[in-house]
Amino acid sequence: MNTEPLQEKPPARIHATAEVSPAAKIGAGSRIWHYVQIREGAELGENCIVGKDVYIDFDVRVGNNVKIQNGAYLYHGLTVEDGVFIGPRAVFTNDVYPRAINPDGTLKGADDWEVGPTRVCYGASIGSGAIVLPNVTIGRFALVAAGAVVTRSVPDHGLVVGVPARLVGYACRCGRRMTPQGNGYFCSVCQWTFHPEELTP
Fold first, then answer.
1. Which of 119, 141, 121 is nearest to 132 (CA)?
2. 77/57 Cα distance (integer angstroms)
3. Which range (64-73, 141-150, 170-179) has the least confidence?
4. Hey, what domains does the chain have and what are their CATH numbers?
């Protein structure tokens, strides 16, 4: 029987200038920096880093060990799995049919729009200034290049660039671009081969 005392997890550290709703959940060991806003119902996992000026909208879900760099905007409808990197000024949109007003000219309210859900899967990276449109899934260890505009889903390990983003290759778990080899892709650093046909549907 193990009689060693359980180690307590370090508490989250929240900068005095950050605005974190009391109805948000912040995991142990996470660090929230200057002028961050985290709204009600949002959930942030353990050991996350949230940089200066980040906005996390209501009910957004963020996993463990996620890094969110300065000025990123994470809007309602977004789920971020464990180990994801979100670069500076990345934006996750959520309105499928964006309008300020209804057809009759009245200002749209909370019930007058349709949320498009977005998921960023385990280990994926979103480059600086990238824009992700609603109703997409970014696969495990996928890599979205800086400034890309993602309009459709990205496969596991997919490397996408441009406006709109297009698939140009595959990225290793270490983040490096893999080279084609036979019917797969090879990382010379990790000595690892990836076969796109093994992707989960």
1. 119
2. 9
3. 170-179
4. 13-97+115-176 (2.160.10.10)
